[in-house]
Amino acid sequence: MLTLEQVGAGYGLSRVLNDVSLRVGPGELVTMLGRNGAGKTTLLRTIVGLHPVAAGKVTFAGNDVTGMMPHARARSGIGYVPQGRGIFPHLTVRENLRLGLAARFGRGEGRGAKLPDYIFDLFPVLARLSERKGGLLSGGEQQQLAIARALASKPTLLLLDEPTEGIQPSIVQDIQAALKRIRCELNVAMLLVEQYLDFAWSIADRFYVIQRGSIAAAGDTRECSADSVAHLMSV
Amino acid sequence: MGEYALLAGQLFNGVSVASILLLAALGLALSFGLMRVINMAHGEMLMVGGYLSFLTYRFAPARLGFVLALIVAFVGAAAFGALLELVLIRRLYGRPLDTLLATWGVSLALQQAARSIFGAIGVEVTAPKWLSGSFTVKSGAMAGFNLPYVRLFIIALAVAVLSGTWLLIQRTRLGLYVRAVHQDREMAQALGVNTGWVDLAVFALGTGVAGLAGSVLAFIAPVTPTVGQSYIVYAFLVVILGGLGNLLGTLLAAAVVGLFSAGAQIFTSVSFADVLLLMFVIAFIQFRPSGIFAARGRALEEA
Ligand SMILES: Nc1ncnc2c1ncn2[C@@H]1O[C@H](COP(=O)(O)OP(=O)(O)O)[C@@H](O)[C@H]1O
Ligand SMILES: [Mg+2]
């Protein structure tokens, strides 16, 4: 599904990612762990196409997408929930969701492209807020909107960058529950960047730990205990 | 002559000048708001529109020619803008100074080309018969107040174009994409919006509207190789005053600039009115020092 082969990327002259190789299979849930500044966000941005690849190769759904524009990658099935959520502040919730259809319009689905019902089923709060401006939502509401918007494009791979960061605990539980439902009910692969080790372990099939821009550990969440990687993440 | 006729006449003139400024400034405001591009050749799009209208009148029968000229001017200038965006502006993305210089070069080249093809002296376009009359108040305080149909038409056209642009931005899918790109270009891309295409469409639309302005301008003044230059300065003033990329601001600023210069002309000469206008704009920016660029944040979506 998604493969990275010896990917390198950086800002100007400083290298942030070195020799990163990883794989996410169809329908698989893979978590990416690592300290602040390890390069997780940069890695996801590289996969989405917002950050240039300096070395190596990115393959998605059998195609080499290394030099492909972000909009083309989105159209080919990559959904992205960025760190900070990326909600359009002056657009309403409904308009934000409609933008989730852009990839499908671009794919040529035409007027038939509609918001899937399960979005409001997963996040009932969005139906109530549909005319509210995105910038006026709480952090938790914005996060739910960002996930719903990514799902609206019917992605085959969903990239989530710290979806529970800076969100009040009660909503964190809602979001975690929703992610579990997405995992069970929708046939979508996920690459999840997480800080909550326990939650990551409870939902993921496999894990990678990234340290100073390189993969420091990888494995199966059922075979390794969470404790075995905890020391790689502590500050 | 009634006592208010002169004042009313200048007011009306001001509104019609404001309408042309609005058409000329709209594209500048949009393309700066979205792409942060300052197109120095934007004035020449008026010129292109003017000459295209002139040519259309020569080859098409008068009655049809009028509508045809508007369409040809719009489509021609839009195509020109699209070409400019594809060949030049897109390649200089993120390099504002280079863009400024390159488009300035295009502006000079277009003026020279017009000089070679049409001559340095302007060409005249006569408005169709039904547009060349005027409405005059016969008696009372407003006696002598004269409303030329051409200017009424220009005002109507500006209103139509502004409403159309507003509807396009608020009500269509392209408009939604434009607003999204304006607020967060990267996120829009990551959701599958082809931002290159959105830029192109907006840029071409803006130059097309400038072409329309050139087309109607031809009715009230000869089309010359430098016609763009004489309007572009005011258009820039409008854009600076109105806040870049802000439709409502552009509308208000066009009204202020148009009315100010027409009003000042009652009391002084044209050139002194320009000096006053410039002083006014400078004073305004003093009071809103963060004005020009900070205004970008609240642009398209609130208009
Ligand atoms: N825009 C930027 N310019 C320069 N360096 C950056 C930029 N963004 C991130 N970095 C650097 O890249 C490294 C990885 O950052 P990031 O990918 O955000 O890490 P993480 O998401 O794991 O916290 C950090 O050392 C950070 O300082
Ligand atoms: Mg991060």
Name some characteristics of this structure:
heterodimer; A: 235 residues; alpha/beta; Rossmann fold; six-stranded mixed sheet; 10 helices; globular; B: 303 residues; mainly alpha; two-stranded antiparallel ribbon; 13 helices; 2% strand; binds adenosine-5'-diphosphate; binds magnesium ion
What report would you give on this structure?
The complex is a heterodimer of chains A (235) and B (303). By secondary structure, chain A is an alpha/beta fold. Chain A has a single domain, classed as 3-Layer(aba) Sandwich (Rossmann fold), CATH 3.40.50. Chain A is 34% helix and 26% strand. In chain A, strands 6-7-8-3-9-10 form a six-stranded mixed β-sheet, with helices on both faces. In chain A, 45% of the residues are buried. Chain B starts with a helix and ends in a 9-residue tail after the last helix. In chain B, strands 1-2 form a two-stranded antiparallel sheet. Chain B is an all-alpha fold. Helix content of chain B is 75%, strand content 2%. Chain B is globular, with a radius of gyration of 19 Å. Chain B has a domain at 18-225. The interface between A and B is medium-sized, with 27 and 20 residues. Residues 40-41, 83, 161 of chain A line the site of magnesium ion.
From the spread of the alpha carbons, the general shape of chain A counts as: globular
Give the radius of gyration of chain B: 19 Å
Which overall shape of chain B is indicated by the principal axes computed on the Cα atoms? globular
Radius of gyration of chain A: 17 Å
Portion of residues in beta strands of chain B equals under 5%
CATH topology of chain A: Rossmann fold
Tell me the β content of chain A.
25-35%
CATH evolutionary superfamily of chain A:
P-loop containing nucleotide triphosphate hydrolases
Q: Which parts of chain A are unreliable, with pLDDT below 50 for 5 consecutive residues or more?
A: none
SSE arrangement of chain B, N to C: HHHHHEEHHHHHHHH
State the total count of DSSP E strands of chain A: 10
Helix content of chain B: over 70%
Count of strand segments of chain B: 2
Bound molecules: adenosine-5'-diphosphate, magnesium ion
CATH architecture name of chain A:
3-Layer(aba) Sandwich
Task: Summarize the main sheet of chain A.
Answer: 6 strands, mixed
Distance between the termini of chain A: 33 Å
Order of helices and strands of chain A: EEEHEEHEHHHHHEHEHEEH
Round the mean pLDDT of chain B to the nearest integer and report it. 86
CATH class value of chain A:
Alpha Beta
